[in-house]
Amino acid sequence: MQTDIDPRHLIGRKAFDRNGTRIGTIDEVYLDDATGVPEWAAIRTGLFSRDAFVPLEPSEIVDGALHVPFERALIKDAPDFGVGRHLSPEQELQLYHHYGLDISAPPPLPDRDFGRLAGHDKQA
User: Fold this and answer.
1) Cis peptide before 107 (omega within 30 of 0)
2) Which of 4, 78, 79, 123 has a CA 20 to 30 Å removed from the CA of 85?
């Protein structure tokens, strides 16, 4: 997503799926806890419908609207966590899996000798 867009300016914008079909209107934007970068948008999918979470990366803003590279049916079937609450890391993981997005694992810790195991004296 374009990182120069203020997340407050996303609220109220229309959202469209990969085929150009209107999904709904952006209700809320969720920021990454560690970086503060906009990560998820909650899109109101209809007057009496729930909000569906969509990833802002790899979505993009085109002509003032959010274009999400997924089909409407997949978006409407996204896990429902309700809006107005914090997304837990587990909930975010469920959303990433739902959209088939690969999330990078943290880099492995350096290989270090943390000492002897209890009861195993190292003798030269």
Assistant:
1) no
2) 4
